[in-house]
Amino acid sequence: MIPFKQRLAAIEERIEAACDRAGRARRDMRLMAVSKAHPASAIVEAVEAGVTLFGENRVQEFERKRSELEALGVFASQDIEIHMIGHLQSNKSGKAVEIFSAIDTVDSLRLAERLNEAADKSGRVLPVFLEIKLGGEATKTGLDPAGRELQEMLERAPDLSHINVRGLMTVPPLDDNPETARSCFRRLRELREELAGRHPTLDCSELSMGMSGDFEIAIEEGSTLVRIGTALFGVREARV
Ligand SMILES: *Cc1c(COP(=O)(O)O)cnc(C)c1O
After folding, report:
1. Residue range 4-233, CATH number
2. For a tag site, which of 97, 112, 178, 186 has the least CB within 10 Å?
């Protein structure tokens, strides 16, 4: 198997090439290594290679890995950020606020309120992303870009003083045509511009979009955070 360091270098090269094509600066983009379904040792290897931002999608799974990483002193020696990128049930808000640096998948006002309460109790301000549904399928989570709930959320945001809406996030529908992803990414960017115009006091500037199969397209369309799993850690084993 190709060592992690080498895979990271290859991805870095592709990110830089995409930034060049788009006339963007590499420093305006962040790479998130999606370590879900991989063991804590994979995170340790990535940290050693210089990765500082990770994505996980299950509370219980990361709770386990987090204890292992703490025992190894990973958090003590490095400034590591771990974001939740999976669907979060609002009854797990308290635990999620304890173990994650940020929640990138806020998909309801109820969840935003629960996270705000939990963050208040922990005495912190929690960075969040609003997950937007652009595929239209019933199975996908995310806020309807044209729906009332998204508007309410942004109107309520200044009162929810323990969460800080950093930006928007999306997962495009599964499709072999890369242009489908491109049009989703473009719509997310346009939505951010529209929302920024209507809510000038919010600093909702980040766009979390792009995964192993489409991150270059996402960078061309304005992504500020790409979430890469398979291309860095290899194919995930089926979960048991
Ligand atoms: C798993 C996952 C990723 C990473 O996907 P890859 O195709 O393995 O890069 C990115 N974002 C979300 C929300 C995920 O669940």
Report:
1. 3.20.20.10
2. 178
